[in-house]
Amino acid sequence: MLVIDEVGYRSYGPDAANVLFDVVNERHQKRRPMIFTTNKELDTWGRVLYGNDLAEAIVYRILERGRHLKLDGPSVCTGHLDLDSTQAQELLNRPDRIAGITPGDFPGCAAVRAARSGQLFEK
């Protein structure tokens, strides 16, 4: 199983569509499973990958035997968080440090889950 997470989250080089097409085409021919996650609409993959024709061919191969599932709803990280709680406000108002020698202070999903369960932790 090949999982490609967050298609379009970061910018790609001008050769991105060529590289992804080669991977998808080979897996398609061998009937190997693939999962893609993205917040981008399928018709925008051409702009994301810098190649409309190849992006269309990629999407065609993915969907020929696959399914497009659109998931709507609250975020896994914040969907059930009581944003009025004191703990949540502390997390949201705390400045984030995401670089350096020691682990970053970026709260991410783990901190949100901890706040949700009432267990704040210190690094």
Structure description:
There is one protein chain. The chain is mainly alpha-helical and 123 residues long. The chain is built from five helices and two strands; from the N terminus they run E-H-E-H-H-H-H. It has a two-stranded parallel sheet with strand order 1-2. The longest helix has 14 residues, at 16-29. The protein is elongated and about 55 Å long. The chain starts with a strand and ends in a 6-residue tail after the last helix.
Helix and strand composition category: mainly alpha
Q: Please give the share of residues in helix.
A: 40-55%
Helices and strands, in order, run as: EHEHHHH
What count of helical segments does DSSP give? 5
Layout of SSEs?
Elements: E1 2-7, H1 16-29, E2 34-38, H2 45-49, H3 52-64, H4 86-93, H5 108-117
Parallel strand pairs: 1-2
Helix pairs in contact: 1-3
Give a brief rundown of this model.
This protein has 123 residues and is mainly alpha-helical.
